[in-house]
Amino acid sequence: MSNAPGSTKVDEAVGRRRILVLFAHPSLERSEVNGPLAAATARVEGVTLVDLYAEYPTFDFNVDLEQERLLAHDALCFMYPLYWYSTPAILKEWQDLVLERGFAYDAAAPALQGKVFFNALTAGGPEAAYCAAGYNHLTIRELLSPLEQMSRLCGMVFLPPFALFGARTAVEDGRLAGHIADWVRVLEALRDHRLDLAAAAPRTKLNADLDAIIRGA
Length: 217
Ligand SMILES: Cc1cc2nc3c(=O)[nH]c(=O)nc-3n(C[C@H](O)[C@H](O)[C@H](O)COP(=O)(O)O)c2cc1C
Hints:
Layout (H helix, E strand, L loop, with lengths): L8 H4 L6 E5 L10 H9 L4 E5 H4 L7 H9 L3 E7 L7 H10 L17 E7 L17 H4 L1 H9 L3 E2 L3 E3 L11 H16 L5 H4 L17
Parallel strand pairs: 1-2, 1-3, 3-4, 4-5, 4-6
Bound molecules: flavin mononucleotide.
């Protein structure tokens, strides 16, 4: 089974992709952008939104349930505010416990083979800071290297992150509504096999010139 972008199991199959979004925000009551993004996500048909901090406030994962959720979907998205250049802690714990050897890797039939994996994140820092010449030195995609390699080891098709920079001023700058509209458009295109995975794969972020990677309405 090839795991090259554009050749996923589901691309060859009939029907929509089922998308699982694992949402992680440890203080949702203070969120300005992830709360509305999560609410919009939950309204997209064919998308399952799981609020990890709400479901597992003490990190006591039901590993069997989490693995069943993975098996029941064709694409997996981690959705979160960027915390110290990475995910909030619960997503790391989820990986450590759910992506078991014999299930996700070192398995005769790796459970995630051919499924799509990507991140939808918000960052307080400006986009200009996320490059070699900026104060964060690395691009957002480079910072997510462990997640990219995690997905590749599991045989998944990695897509670059769907990212909102300058998140703390997005509401007052009037950028949030457009970002949410773009997000819904990407989810619907991925679901309906209208997102060009091969064209999207090399990008630093997914949400640049969506018209170039999304076919049709
Ligand atoms: C503990 C913590 C760590 C953070 N680390 C980063 C970071 O590494 N890079 C960055 O750009 N923003 C960082 N931020 C800012 C958040 O990413 C930003 O506040 C968030 O994306 C806003 O989303 P919200 O309104 O849904 O909370 C951090 C914020 C907190 C509280």
